[in-house]
Amino acid sequence: MKLNLLPQSVSKAGAARGMIVVAAAMAILGILAAVFMTVTSEKMLADAKENAIAKQKLAADAKATSDQADAQIAAATIITKNQKLAEAMNAHNRKYVDLYRDVLRYVPAYYRLESIRATPTGPGTSSVTLVGYIDTFHQYADLAIALWKIPEAMTVTRAGYQIDDASVQPLTETDQVGTAIKPDETPLPSDPLARMDALIARAASEPRGFLNQGGFGTTDTNSPRGAMPGRSQVTMTVTMNRDIQTPDPRATIATGGGAPAPGGVAPGFGGVPGGGRR
């Protein structure tokens, strides 16, 4: 067995010298690290200042270029404004024509059209009014259905049909059968002889010869033909999701923007001197 014959003070002194060496080495490493970090930080700071100075020059050049571009744009504003206004006005020239063409595709042949007119009702909407003539109530119903087929139609309203169909009236003392009569006719009696006399009297009172109704048979070619006997003038109004507002040159020049003004009623198809007929 090996015995430790050294005094305890000698072993502690050796350990203390070892710790001093370690502490000195750590201090030297810390000083070296601090010096390295200081040098590195100073170099990074110098590089950052140099980079900032270089970018300040680039930023100044970019600002000068931007100011020059703004000045050129401001000088060309009136030209750009007039160009956009001219383009908008040229594009507007076909708006009414295209609208009439698209609506007339859905107008049935039995609706004898006298006039068609479009009116802007606000941004993105317009109203189309058609005036024409039909024969029966069945056509009156079918006409509304036909106009509802317009893809941009929002509402369809109608007015003007005069009911001329025969209908059965309540029984009276003289008419116990319930004969169907038109609104402007008197009931026929049930007695055969009295009925025959009433029919003869009705036929004798019917108008004969040239009636000059609706302008038919005249030489006037400037006025549209009206309703034939037994037909009704019907007005159809279609509200459409289509913008036909006219560009406002005054507002465009004053504000620099294309401000569409509430457009007036444009000349329609028919209803004006020399208007067409169908």
Name some characteristics of this structure.
two-stranded antiparallel sheet; 278 residues; 8 strands; alpha+beta
Account of the protein in words:
This protein has six helices and eight strands; from the N terminus they run H-H-H-E-E-H-E-E-E-H-E-E-H-E. It is of the alpha+beta class. The chain has a four-stranded antiparallel beta sheet with strand order 1-2-6-3, covered by helices on one side. Strands 4-5 form a two-stranded antiparallel sheet. Strands 7-8 form a two-stranded antiparallel sheet. A hairpin with a 2-residue loop joins strand 1 and strand 2. The N and C termini lie far apart (137 Å).
Give a short overview.
The chain is of the alpha+beta class. It has helices at residues 8-75, 77-92, 95-104, 137-148, 192-205, 249-255; strands at 112-122, 125-134, 153-159, 167-168, 180-181, 232-240, 246-247, 260-261. The longest helix has 68 residues, at 8-75.
Can you lay out the helices and strands and say which pair or pack?
Layout: H1 8-75, H2 77-92, H3 95-104, E1 112-122, E2 125-134, H4 137-148, E3 153-159, E4 167-168, E5 180-181, H5 192-205, E6 232-240, E7 246-247, H6 249-255, E8 260-261
Kindly provide the radius of gyration, computed on alpha-carbon positions and rounded to a whole number of angstroms: 48 Å
Rounded to the nearest angstrom, the distance between the terminal CA atoms is 137 Å
Report the structural category: alpha+beta
Topology as a string of helices (H) and strands (E): HHHEEHEEEHEEHE
Strand content: 15-25%
Helix segment count?
Answer: 6
Number of strands: 8
Q: What composes the largest sheet?
A: 4 strands, antiparallel
* Mean pLDDT level: 76
- The stretches of 5 or more residues where confidence is low (pLDDT under 50) are 257-265, 271-278
The helix fraction, in percent, is: 40-55%
Shape: elongated
Strand order of the largest sheet: 1-2-6-3
